[in-house]
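cron nightly-structures :: item 1 of 1
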Amino acid sequence: YQRRVHGSATGTNVGYGFWSHDIEGPPNDLEMYTRWIQWGSVSAIMRSHDRGMSAGDCADINTCSIVQPWAVPTEYFEANRAALQARARLIPYTYTAARQAFDTGLSLIRPMYYDYPEYNEAYTAADPQGKMAQYMFGDDILIAPVVSQAGTDQMATKTIWIPSGSWVEEHTGYVITGPKTITRKFALEEIPKYIKAGAIITEIPVVEGDVVGLASRQYSTLVFNVYPGASQGTTSVYIDDGQSLDYLNGKYSWLQFSYSRNNDNFQATISISGGFVPSSIKFVVKILGSFPPKSVVFQGATCQYQRFGSGYNTWTYDGQKVTTIISSAPVSLNTPVTLSVSLLGSDPSTLNGLKGGFHRANLAKRNLDIVRHTPGETVVKPARLAVLASAGSALSYLAGNDLNQFVASSSQFASNLTSAQQEVHSISGVSAHRLAYSTSLLDSLPLQ
């Protein structure tokens, strides 16, 4: 399993960058099955595999392979589903990379030494034994699949080489400056992904139950995820009809999204050129790791705040993910589309890692809720863990109602995290493995 990561990445060296591995799981290792699905979700081709070993006489002795991502206990199912949905959302990113491969021969996945040949670590990361397995997934995403079993704290440990420049740790929102080697712990649902600071990762919305044929549909909505850590950025999205060979006759286009930003303003422009132009597209712009805006103007019209907004020409704020979300109406691409956001003026680096803290606090609380041992569950206590777990929801509300209190509340994150850690460590009457998981979730955050 570890060695296959090396094989996948280095296949690009011989022009064999688009291939799949046979994803299936033994019945006695559900963790490996989930980790394999997660790795497959960030591979060039993903394919569940069954050559007859999922049924038959093996059913009577419980040795059949698992090939259905949903036929597992809840915690594994949720992680499997999240990985599959994340892959579906990335269709514009991976389809653009497929066009890049068509034009240049450069695969979607590639060894680290393609982009960083001057670093010895880039070659170590391609170790055939898979001890430090990682690769680039397209131009902007570094993937370091978990290929080892979790410890007694139910967390998997992974050593990752971060190349030069700044990178955003996807599951925590933490900005890391390389080159350096780091060691992290990952919960079952977490996939080690590192995004180039300032990158724009393009996605589409995914609706549960409506995913068959999704990759062949015309884009009705494009979601631009703008990552923190840079003052400007540009991305191009390849568009064709998704079904025919007309692209060979010039029936395709390139849509470009460019932005510039500072602490006070965010300006973006969307334009398209080529021989295939959709009649209209709805745009969603997500500014990750940001303070909420003071005002938003899209195509000259002011966007209104909606607490749970997804309406046309509105903005909202997801405090759990520390992200401003701006939604447009469907617009024509005959002329460039503009977006202007007046920001709060505060330094967004002060929000570094809040996303991971809120996420991990909810995992730790959920783990203790099951056995009714969350502080404050049955007896009134300070409930520091609950405060930290709900802080993101509070920021969602404050973003549209009280910006001064938003700043004050977000600045309390470090002290709230310390208090939650101390509170969880003091819990008694909980099994050792359950307590170890909750404490490790909080203690392994890269914030101290």
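cron nightly-structures :: done
The two ends are 33 Å apart (CA to CA).
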